[in-house]
């Protein structure tokens, strides 16, 4: 973070929404791209303000808002409710932000070892039902959804918001960011990004340059990886043949769902699921997998 969000500017922005109310703001937590603040206003229930870095300007915030609203529409899983938001860096805060209701509970990662097996079973059943609800509400094309979200209409898939597409300097690359009609197009885009990383390393260390052992290792890794990418690119047509069919059927996929994103009460009952950024509509072969909180050691 090159600059910290200003608490007074946060309060001023929130007072414009509740001009006759007292506003209290306190820092809560920080993630890779976000800072979270507890917000208390006279009248409304406790709120959470999520301020984000512009890792994928406008698109990440807009997609997160649409995703929360759509999942709230088609599932019964407890999610925050979006109150309002700004997807512009020109806001009074100087950051993109989302104001939403605050969910009670503690993270499942903290509670997991204290929860009995029957409660864990009930949690897994809830998430199975949640996944089934998303599966019943299928989309078309690979990418993310954006406002407006209407309960009577299936969202249209747009430009993808995904860490592999904006991590590091990738956000500045002139590449196709979707929406992708088919798996072959999405995989080709992912391989192109990996290839760009390799080429950047090789350009950094010309063949006749004197380099240390660490740089030599980086160069060898990039050369080997570029060779693997070239082989995979040749296999795309075999694995994903060209087709004249319409856009591939997809579903919103939350396979990266970890225990830190799941909130439970003292008894281990589900109270909410948070962190809905970068949730994309993915093809069935990718989406139909276990969430990360069920992977690894129990």
TrEMBL record:
Pfam annotation, one family:
APH
Q: Which domain of life is it from?
A: Eukaryota
Tell me which SUPFAM superfamilies the record gives: Protein kinase-like (PK-like)
What InterPro entries does the database record attribute to this sequence?
AGP_Transferase (IPR051678), Aminoglycoside_PTrfase (IPR002575), Kinase-like_dom_sf (IPR011009)
Q: The Aminoglycoside phosphotransferase domain covers which part of the protein?
A: 26-280
**Which named protein is this?**
Aminoglycoside phosphotransferase domain-containing protein
What is the species of this protein? Fusarium vanettenii (strain ATCC MYA-4622 / CBS 123669 / FGSC 9596 / NRRL 45880 / 77-13-4)
């Amino acid at each position: 973070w090159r600059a910290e969000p200003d608490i007074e500017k946060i309060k001023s922005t929130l007072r414009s929404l509740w001009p006759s109310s007292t506003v209290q703001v306190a820092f809560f937590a920080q993630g890779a791209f976000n800072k979270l603040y507890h917000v208390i206003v006279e009248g409304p229930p406790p709120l959470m303000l999520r301020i984000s870095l512009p890792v994928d300007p406008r698109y990440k915030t807009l997609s997160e808002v649409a995703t929360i609203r759509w999942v709230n529409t088609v599932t019964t899983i407890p999610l925050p409710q979006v109150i309002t938001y700004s997807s512009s860096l020109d806001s009074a805060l100087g950051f993109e932000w989302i104001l939403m209701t605050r969910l009670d509970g503690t993270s499942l990662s903290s509670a997991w070892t204290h929860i009995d097996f029957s409660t864990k079973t009930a949690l897994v059943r809830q998430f199975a039902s949640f996944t089934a609800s998303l599966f019943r509400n299928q989309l078309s094309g690979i990418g993310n959804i954006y406002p407006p979200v209407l309960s009577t209409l299936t969202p249209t898939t747009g430009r993808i918001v995904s860490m592999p597409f904006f991590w590091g300097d990738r956000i500045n690359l002139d590449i196709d960011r979707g929406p992708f009609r088919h798996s072959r197009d999405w995989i080709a885009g992912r391989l192109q990004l990996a290839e760009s990383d390799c080429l950047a390393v090789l350009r950094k260390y010309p063949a006749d340059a004197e380099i240390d052992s660490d740089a030599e290792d980086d160069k060898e890794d990039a050369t080997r990886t570029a060779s693997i990418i070239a082989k995979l690119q040749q296999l795309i047509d075999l694995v994903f043949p060209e087709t004249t069919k319409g856009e591939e059927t997809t579903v919103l996929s939350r396979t990266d769902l970890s225990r830190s994103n799941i909130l439970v009460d003292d008894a281990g009952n589900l109270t909410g699921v948070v962190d809905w950024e970068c949730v994309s509509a993915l093809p069935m072969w990718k989406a139909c997998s276990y969430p990360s909180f069920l992977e690894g050691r129990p």
